[in-house]
Amino acid sequence: MSSTQIQEERYLDIINQFAVGLLNQSTIKETLWSVIDNVVSKLDFYDCAIYLLDEDKEHLIQVASQAYKDKEPRNTNATFIKMGTGIVGKVAQEKQSRITNDTSQSEDYITDDQWRFSEITVPIIHENELIGIIDSEHPEKDFFQPIHLNILTTIASMVAIKVVQARHLENLAAREKSFDLIYSSTNDLIFLMEVEPNDSFRCVSVNRAFLELTNKKRGDVVGKTIDDIWDAERSATIKSYYREAIETKKPITYQIKFRTGNNIVIVETKVTPVFDHRGRCTNLSGISRDITTAEAVRSELGYEREKYQTLFSKANDAIFILKDDLIIECNDRTTEIFGRDREGLIGYAPHELSPQVQPDGKTSDRRMDQDNFQWVHTKKDGSYFTADVTLSRYHFKNEEYTQAIVRDVSERIKAEEVLRASEKRYRTIFENSLDGIYKSTPEGRFVEVSPALVAMLGYDSEEELLSINIKKDLYFKEEDRFKHSNQYRLKKKNGDEIWVEDHGFYQYDGEGKVIFHQGILRDVTAKNQKQMELENLLNMTSDQNKRLQNFAHIVSHNIRSHSANLTSLVSFMEMTKDEAEKQKMFQMLKSSTGQLEETIMNLNEIITVNQNLNKPIEQRNLMEEVEKTLQILNDEILESGVKIAVDIPEDLVLPIIPAYLDSILLNLLSNAIKYRRSEVKSEIKIQAKAIQGKVQIEISDNGMGIDMDAHGDKIFGMYKTFHQNEDARGFGLYITKNQIETMKGKILVDSKVNRGTTFTVYFNEER
């Protein structure tokens, strides 16, 4: 044989080896690695690479390659070649094999790791569909011969068949795995029935879900007939559906109910008949689904439809359905609001039930893109009404519909207009009122204040007043706010006091909790001052009136007594002839005249006190005033041996009428000396202290004392005496009390016979 024949026979033997080798491969990966290994080793090629077309059929992916120098086939980093690019891409696009004898002369050649001068490229094709490329390069020019092309083409054909078979096997395995997974994990019930003679159906297989839902064991179902599995009634029903599927040669769907435990279950089953090549039904495959919940939902949906229909027909708003901008359905309320019957609504467009132009100046026939808007409609009688409109678009059976809900808001708009007018009037009053208007929170913050209130409280701006803490910055004492029902003190920005009259009310939320306090504040400082002045004047007038009445009584009583006594004495003197008797009468007349003069002087002193009611008040140091009085009484103190103890703060100052204080101290101290007890060492204590702005003076002695039970209500009366002293006139305490009260003070007495007396004088009592 020639060398060519020998070579051809060798190549045929190689192809046979390739074919045998491919038979032993089961996966695509094994097949491809076997090919490149044999190509390199048996054909003495320098290298070999196989590319497979990707799913998008846009790129070729290198999945296996081997060079002559490699001992083992090697995995490579995935190389992507775009269809039509380079020699490999061009061959793939054209599906035509190619030998490139000198790559340096080919513009399609793309250099790999190094330049090789020969390249053979063969497409892997199955039923005219490109699967991939077998490619080999060689460093020598003109290395590849036609015989090489024939061998690679044959090998490519075998590879194509093997790849397609492997892919089928892989897909089948994947489907079987997927089916097994679905069969075992699905919640649907899957079963296979074998059709036996004599109208008998025997279970061949069931999945887990079937056993769980029916609450049966596999041995109770597999290998058993329908009659064994179900009760007679259900068995008969199921067999009738099976026969119908076999007769019609079509799948059939049916529903059955059965009890499992304490529950009633509804399942929907689809049974498909399976026929052999002779047309005989051999099996029935079935899949069932628990639709208990779905049935409940359908029932609920029916209830919801009925409820929606009730709402639609009984709603207080007009509801109508639009299709192609025409009303096709409406509820009863629509006819009421529009004042039209159904015939006057169905088939009309909304703009035909509206004025030509809306309040915004635009025509009513425009299409509204908003879902919520306000619109003016026309009633049958021609009157207008304003409505809030809500549109909802939806699709049903591939048709678009619009639901419109129309609410007549004419009355609401009128009410809003009235409210706006009321608010405008309120704002006018708020801005121009002479009284302060406010709104505040329970936490003590203003949320709204009028200009008058800002000015009343001496702040520079509304913002400044809104920023303050009411409890801290406005109240002198927070409790003042609650001591008075509607009048209390406030502190202005500069610290001055202002009296206000508050007419307010609380605003509550839905739970009865106070959220705001609103009211009007009126400045009544000047009014209160005038009121106090008036009250002082009335008190003074009343006091003077009482003093006048008392004075008139004294004058009437005392002068009348002396006048009657003098008249009697004069009559006696005129009647008697005895000179001695007359002389006696004259002495009595002289005594009565002296008593009358004393009475007139006492009355004059009372008049002097009353006339000095408005004498100016002066600040005097009490200690100095007491020392001055003690100096006046110094001779009497020394003569009587009375011990004087003084306890008065040196800085104690009080506002008084100086002459009155001198008289008061002189009267009280001289009385304490005068009415001492001879059998004991006499002591007089003078104490004073300031208590909350008031001055309290106590003058105590251990003298004779007064029987309070017998004389307690007469102590400060005129001409009231309680001891047998010859010089006691009963006039000093009366004058002292009047002087103290003239200075808005008061005097109290506590006394016990033979124990002593304490007079307590309070100054500033009413100031």
TrEMBL record:
Look up keyword Transferase and say if it applies. Answer: yes
Q: What is its EC number?
A: 2.7.13.3
Q: Which SMART domains match?
A: GAF, HATPase_c, PAC, PAS
Domain of life of the organism encoding this protein: Bacteria
The cross-references to Pfam families, in alphabetical order and at most eight, read: GAF_2 (PF13185), HATPase_c (PF02518), PAS_4 (PF08448), PAS_9 (PF13426)
- Would you tell me the protein name for this molecule? histidine kinase
User: A Gene Ontology molecular-function term?
Assistant: protein histidine kinase activity
Gene3D superfamilies with a match to the protein in the record: 3.30.450.40, Histidine kinase-like ATPase, C-terminal domain, PAS domain
Identify the residues that the record assigns to the PAS domain, covering every copy: 175-249, 422-463
- Provide the Histidine kinase domain boundaries: 554-767
**Catalysed reaction equations from the record:** ATP + protein L-histidine = ADP + protein N-phospho-L-histidine
Q: What class of enzyme is it?
A: transferase
Q: Matching PANTHER family, A to Z?
A: PAC DOMAIN-CONTAINING PROTEIN, PHYTOCHROME-LIKE PROTEIN CPH1
This protein's species is Reichenbachiella faecimaris
Key words, A-Z: Kinase, Phosphoprotein, Transferase
Give start and end of each PAC domain: 250-303, 484-536
